[in-house]
Sequence to fold (98 residues):
Amino acid sequence: MLTEDQIMESLHYIIDPEIGINIVDLGLIYNLDISSEKIIVTMTLTTPGCPMHSSMAEGVENAIRHLDDKVRIEVNLVWKPKWTPDMMTDYAKERLGY
Fold:
C-alpha cells in the first residue's frame, strides 16, 4: 500500500503551468484518503475558472498511477474551502514574493 509521503512526493512533480510552482507547495492538495484498493485525492485549483482543471486532475492521477498501476484513483476537485495564498508553503510564498 502506498503511503501519504510517497504520494505527496510524486505530486511535487506536477507544476501549475500558470504559476510555475508544484501543486503541493501551492497548497492545492486538501486531503488524501488511502486504502489498499483506492486512493481519493481531494484538491482544488487557484481559481474556479482555471482552464487546466481536467489536465491537472489527470496529472494527479498519472503521478499516482506511476507509483502503483493497479490501485484505483479518484480525484475530487472542490472549491470549498476557497484557495488562498495563505495555503502555500513558505517555499512557494518566497518564490512568489509573499
